[in-house]
């Protein structure tokens, strides 16, 4: 690799930073990647943020473009729908999609990180500095201050540019904000989450269907579970942080036991350690980050969660970050200066990341409440039927987001609003099954209100 190649610096080697490093070096850059943690390839997974993630079409598309997907494919666990565990104990499957390949996949966060870093580290011209924490920036001088944590030494590196993929709590974003170079808002959700586990069966294998994302919707709170490769599931309880039934109020063993046996008796039977885990696992914070713009001149920029973290209820945060990387790479191909790259990237991407953040919040209500509502279930069934009849014009919003990387998030949000109104109108009144729906009217309305999708 030619030492004269331009150097780009990235802080944060999570999913965004690692994928970006791979794409940047393909564009002829030398990449210096600074990551505050130790090399995750040398140790088992830390508990912390979700153990597994839902990977969908947008993420897969990006991983394919970067040549990483084939290394991960064999570890993916397909999930074909939501398996809803109702309060009465029965369970129903709501398929995610209906076309071939309309699945989402459970993937281990640790394995994904390891794989991305492996590929990044193999690229000539990519150097990864683990245990190096970005601490501050002198924007006027174009210098970043990075602490080498092994030697406890502060080093000064030129930015020109520094791309910050340092996650939702981004120090770069906060620094740019404090220097009044950008504006940013961090909005915490009133709910937090705790991870719990459903172990594999004693004889090995899964204790529930492994090809679904399990949801126990309970109105004000919910439990979900995604399968892991070893036969276990990782469950996540989403619950208010404060209030009558909350992480704050549930402290006594007896109250926690009562909470699980009252609201999740079937799940609790599969979670022998749920009370101990509830008492010892930390409460994770959830929130939305909104920033504008995302860069200062050609010196520094934020990308991924650092620019637009969202709540996890659409399973899109990382998928969206991967899409960022693809879009950023395309902007590099079209522009000759960093300032222009950053400008175009922000202009193209911001409407879409705002849209998916909004849909992610909306999906929380859908998952914890609406999925159990018969009217919602009818509308879901109708949405799939309309997609079968008018595939060029009507695609359920969930499918547009999860299975169509060619449909921008903003378009999914806008078309989704029209479709939701249409579904409400077509199922208004006494409609109780698809047989009650007036499909001639549906066709007229769809042709009038929804342009064909290109
Ligand atoms: C509970 C939960 C469930 C989720 N489920 C899904 C899902 O199913 N599907 C999905 O697509 N998304 C999901 N997400 C979102 C997803 O985790 C994020 O969108 C994604 O991890 C963002 O990647 P990132 O690289 O931008 O940031 P991060 O993953 O936060 O990575 C940032 C990296 O920067 C490093 N770093 C931080 N500060 C510094 C610093 N000062 N200097 C140097 N390095 C630093 C960190 O150590 C880390 O390695 C979920 C999130 C949560 C909280």
What does this structure look like?
- With 454 residues, the protein is of the alpha/beta class.
- The mean pLDDT is 94.
- The longest helix is centred in the last third of the chain and has 31 residues, at 338-368.
- It has 15 helices and 20 strands.
- The protein has three domains: 7-70 and 109-187 and 287-363, FAD/NAD(P)-binding domain (3-Layer(bba) Sandwich); 191-280, no CATH class; 373-449, no CATH class.
- The strands form five sheets. Strands 8-2-1-12-20-19 form a six-stranded mixed β-sheet, with helices on both faces. Strands 6-5-15-16-17-14 form a six-stranded mixed β-sheet, covered by helices on one side. Strands 3-7-4 form a three-stranded antiparallel β-sheet.
- Bound molecules: flavin-adenine dinucleotide.
- Flavin-adenine dinucleotide binds next to helix 1, strand 2, strand 3, strand 9 and helix 10.
Tell me roughly what share of residues is in helical segments: 25-40%
What is the strand tally?
Answer: 20
Oligomeric organization of the protein chains: single chain
The largest β sheet comes out as: 6 strands, mixed
Order of the strands making up the biggest sheet: 8-2-1-12-20-19
Count of runs of 4 or more consecutive helical residues: 15
Compute the average pLDDT. Answer: 94
Overall tally of structural domains: 3
CATH architecture of the largest domain: 3-Layer(bba) Sandwich
Secondary structure class reads alpha/beta
């Amino acid at each position: 690799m030619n030492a004269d190649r331009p150097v780009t610096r990235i802080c944060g080697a999570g999913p965004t930073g690692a994928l970006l490093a791979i794409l940047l070096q393909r564009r002829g850059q030398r990449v210096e990647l600074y990551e505050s943690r130790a090399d995750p390839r040398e140790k088992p997974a830390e508990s912390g943020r979700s153990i597994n993630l839902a990977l969908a079409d947008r993420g897969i598309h990006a991983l394919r473009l970067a040549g990483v997907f084939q290394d991960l494919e064999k570890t993916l666990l397909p999930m074909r729908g939501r398996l809803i565990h109702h309060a009465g104990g029965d369970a129903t499957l709501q398929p995610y999609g209906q076309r071939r390949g309309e699945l989402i996949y459970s993937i281990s966060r640790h394995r994904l990180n390891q794989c991305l870093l492996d590929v990044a580290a193999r690229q000539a011209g990519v150097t990864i500095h683990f245990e190096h924490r970005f601490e501050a920036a002198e924007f006027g001088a174009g210098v970043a201050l990075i602490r080498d944590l092994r030697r406890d030494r502060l080093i000064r590196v030129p930015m020109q540019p520094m791309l910050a993929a340092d996650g939702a709590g981004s120090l770069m974003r906060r620094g740019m904000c404090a220097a009044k170079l950008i504006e940013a808002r961090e909005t915490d959700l009133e709910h937090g989450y705790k991870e719990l586990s459903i172990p594999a069966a004693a004889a090995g294998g899964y204790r529930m269907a492994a090809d679904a994302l399990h949801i126990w919707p309970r109105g004000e709170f919910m439990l979900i579970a995604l399968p892991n490769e070893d036969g276990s599931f990782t469950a996540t309880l989403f619950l208010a942080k404060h209030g009558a039934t909350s992480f704050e109020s549930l402290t006594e063993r007896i109250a926690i036991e009562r909470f699980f046996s009252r609201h999740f008796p079937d799940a609790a039977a599969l979670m022998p350690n749920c009370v101990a885990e509830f008492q010892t696992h930390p409460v994770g914070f959830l929130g939305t980050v909104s920033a504008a713009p995302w860069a200062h001149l050609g010196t520094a920029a934020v990308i991924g969660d650092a620019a637009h973290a969202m709540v996890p209820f659409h399973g899109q945060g990382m998928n969206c970050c991967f899409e960022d990387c693809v879009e950023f790479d395309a902007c590099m191909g079209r522009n000759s200066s960093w300032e222009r790259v950053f400008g175009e990237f922000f202009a193209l991407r911001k409407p879409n990341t705002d849209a998916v953040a909004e849909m992610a919040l909306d999906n929380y209500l859908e998952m914890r409440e609406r999925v159990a509502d018969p009217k919602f279930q009818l509308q879901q069934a109708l949405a799939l039927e309309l997609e079968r009849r008018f595939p060029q014009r009507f695609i359920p919003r969930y499918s547009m987001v999860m299975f169509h990387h060619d449909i921008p998030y903003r378009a999914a949000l806008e078309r989704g609003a029209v479709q939701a109104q249409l579904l409400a109108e077509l199922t208004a009144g006494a409609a109780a099954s698809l047989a009650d729906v007036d499909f001639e009217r549906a066709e007229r309305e769809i042709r009038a209100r929804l342009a064909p999708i290109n």
